[in-house]
Design a protein that fits this description.
Strand content: 15-25%
Strand order of the largest sheet: 1-3-2
Radius of gyration: 19 Å
Number of helices: 5
Oligomer: single chain
Helix content: 40-55%
Order of helices and strands: HHEHHEEHEEEE
Distance between the termini: 35 Å
Length: 151
């Protein structure tokens, strides 16, 4: 039984999403944003065992998020390209929006019903900007929860 092109494409999307689903792998990516590193250095900086770190790196490499090169005896890992960084920025924006909503709910504040300044779509949203956990080169403030016109 053959797979449709759409099913194959969605399967590839799921592979990337699955690679991003583990906090340990996100921690590894955050370290690789700063500079390329070997497995030993990544394991040390993330608190993972070398074996566990290596397994996570293989999943990230299989998903195309990291690339590797051999340096004498060690494998050195880096982000595969700038699109991986852009994907991390998008994840931070979405998480920031969701964290902001959760914070408002927990404080018992009502969400304001307003229109998005970018696309005009009506939505429930916090009345002001909200912080995103800051990591190097990730956005510090998210100013609009809308991805843009038609988003």
């Amino acid at each position: 039984m053959s797979t449709s092109p759409k099913a194959a494409l969605l399967s590839e999307y799921a592979l990337v999403a699955q690679a991003l689903s583990a906090p340990a792998r996100l921690t590894i990516l955050e370290q690789l944003v700063q500079r390329e590193r070997g497995v030993d250095a990544l394991a040390d900086r993330t608190g993972l065992t070398i074996a566990n770190c290596s397994q996570h790196l293989q999943q990230l490499r299989h998903a195309g998020l990291v690339a590797s090169r051999r340096d004498v005896k060690a494998m050195i890992y880096r982000l595969s390209d700038t699109k991986t960084l852009a994907l991390m920025d998008l994840m931070a924006a979405i998480a920031g929006r969701n964290l902001g909503r959760v914070a408002h709910i927990l404080r018992g504040l009502p969400m304001s019903r307003s229109s998005c300044s970018t696309c005009g779509r009506r939505m429930n949203m916090p009345p002001r900007t909200f912080p995103v956990p800051s990591t190097r080169r990730w956005p510090t403030w998210i100013r609009s929860p809308c991805p843009g016109p038609g988003g």
